[in-house]
Amino acid sequence: KAGVTQTPRYLIKTRGQQVTLSCSPISGHRSVSWYQQTPGQGLQFLFEYFSETQRNKGNFPGRFSGRQFSNSRSEMNVSTLELGDSALYLCASSWVVSSQETQYFGPGTRLLVL
Amino acid sequence: GENVEQHPSTLSVQEGDSAVIKCTYSDSASNYFPWYKQELGKGPQLIIDIRSNVGEKKDQRIAVTLNKTAKHFSLHITETQPEDSAVYFCAASGSNSGYALNFGKGTSLLVTP
In A, residues 1-30, which contact B (CB 8 Å cutoff)? Predict the structure, then answer.
């Protein structure tokens, strides 16, 4: 069974631009969560989607948004990029999150903001 | 919200020795505790997890113990091998966090031959 895939793997943007990252969960998984990983703050939860609905949101500004499609694929968008948004963005999928199923992570998208 | 602290931040052991990483959490409602291993350039990979109705779980050379009263849990790796070298993260989750994973800061483990 294929794992979680994320595209693109690497991205370079400049301040003020916006970016869209994509995540395809493991087949059959309906929950997709997004995390930001930085050397200073570690792994931080962004948001979680289940059946196209955002069910949970972390403490990030409104510039960070996401959505989920009917096939469970998810995208996250960051608008008006700041230097501090440079990070590894990780997507994790599971059957459902509310029952504490294991979350499986993808390889991440490394975003560099110049 | 949930606060997870992880120690040590770096750990160096010789091949064949044991390694122990400890985590504490603050939210007594947390009841799921996974451990992830992250190698350079890769996403975190689950290596073992434990739920609050269990005090200890073992999978070959890896074991996790949970003390809910003291709110701490530990990862034990026995007979370490060079390929165990990686960054290890503990996490805690429960209903109060909407089951989002709250991660510790990570432990960089180096196993020297």
Answer: 4
Per-residue pLDDT at A98: 62
**Which chain A residues have a beta carbon less than 8 Å from that of B10?**
none
DSSP per position, B6-34: EE-SEEEEETTS-EEEEEEE--TTEEEEE
Q: Are B86 and B39 in contact (CB under 8 A)?
A: yes
Per-block mean pLDDT, blocks of 10 residues, chain A (114 long): 93 98 96 96 95 94 97 97 98 79 94 98
**Residue contact B98–A56, C-beta within 8 A:** yes
Is B99 in contact with A4 (Cβ distance < 8 A)? no
* Contact of A72 with A25, CB cutoff 8 Å: yes
CB spacing of A100 vs B98 below 8 angstroms: no
Please give the average per-residue pLDDT across B69-78, as a whole number. Answer: 96
